[in-house]
Design a protein that fits this description.
7 strands; Alkylbase_DNA_Glycosylase/TA; TATA-Binding Protein
Length: 309
């Protein structure tokens, strides 16, 4: 039964092996001030826009294998049906072989780390486009400005300030000067709007389970490349093999952590090949590991404020 603003739809999900709710869902957070994501103790609050409408949901672990989800708003029934995929219960890490002390330590240190599948492609794609070739701090700020200007108030008893991302029609209609005022250059703005115009096709393909077709469709959009598609893959599609080749940090950090030196994308592909099927899982464990050495030498990406260009 659909929720009201005060009465949520509730579901208890019991899984057969541990799920770390926060580490899994934290992949969906776009920066520390993301208005679609809050953490309140052990409870994660998030907003989304389902095919059936906006939704606010709260997910709280009751134990390592028991999760309670509550949802408010028009999209609540649809969201509640997807909770197992959302928390990564359908991600199967059992065939993953660490084969490296740092990765083995990560598996022990972070039990229940999964890859989520939201099924919401545009929701992951537009922020990924905004994050292209700029520092995260600037991309996150641009995303916040756009959501505060064009987002919708979160339904239900959401924490103050939470917003729901615009729908595809509204993304496509944002005028060029609003993107500029948010700090998004014309190239990224065009790619985001082109994505919004084919959002219905992308979401249908995701619903069908044909992830290869989703990737092909995304890559056919001007301005969407391997990196951007992978950023969507490990959020919206639950793809534990989605490697963000071309990332400013992934190749050098993974190489430094696993073989003690900086590498490029070609070497990264070779290094990760033994873990095919779990290559993003390797990248994620390196990102989380306190044992991973970080090479801080070399040039850093400069900050560019596109609002003043």
């Amino acid at each position: 039964m659909r929720s009201t603003l005060s009465d949520p739809v509730t579901r208890d999900v019991h899984v057969t092996s541990p799920v770390n709710v926060y580490l899994t869902l934290s992949l969906l957070r776009r920066g520390p001030g993301d208005p679609t994501f809050r953490r309140d103790g052990s409870r994660i609050w998030r907003t989304s826009r389902m095919a059936t409408g906006p939704v606010t949901y709260a997910i709280e672990p009751r134990s390592a294998t028991h999760v309670r989800a509550q949802a408010w708003g028009p999209g609540s029934d649809e969201l509640i049906e997807r909770v197992p995929q959302l928390i990564g219960a359908e991600d199967d890490p059992t065939s993953f072989e660490p084969r490296h002390p740092l990765l083995a330590d990560g598996v022990r240190r972070f039990p229940g780390l999964r890859v989520p599948r939201t099924g919401r492609v545009l929701e992951a794609l537009i922020p990924a486009i905004i994050e292209q070739k700029v520092l995260g701090i600037d991309a996150f700020a641009a995303q916040r400005r756009l959501l505060r200007r064009f987002g919708e108030a979160a339904p239900g008893p959401a924490p103050e300030g939470m917003l729901v991302t615009p729908d595809a029609e509204h993304w496509a209609a944002i005028p060029s000067w609003e993107w500029h005022l948010a700090g998004v250059d014309p190239r990224r703005a065009r790619a985001a709007q082109a994505s919004a115009k084919v959002a219905a096709q992308l979401e249908r393909l995701a619903e069908s389970g044909d992830d290869a077709a989703v990737y092909r469709a995304m890559r056919s959009i001007p301005g969407v490349g391997v990196w951007t598609a992978a950023e969507v893959g490990y959020r919206a599609l639950g793809d534990a093999d989605a490697v963000p080749f071309g990332d400013f940090h992934v190749a050098k950090d993974t190489g430094t952590a696993l073989i003690g030196r900086r590498i490029d994308d070609a070497e990264l592909a070779t290094l990760l090949e033994p873990w095919r099927g779990h290559r993003f899982r390797v990248v994620r464990l390196v990102q989380l590991s306190p044992l991973a050495a970080r090479d801080r030498r070399g040039p850093r990406m400069a900050r560019v404020d596109h609002r003043h260009i």
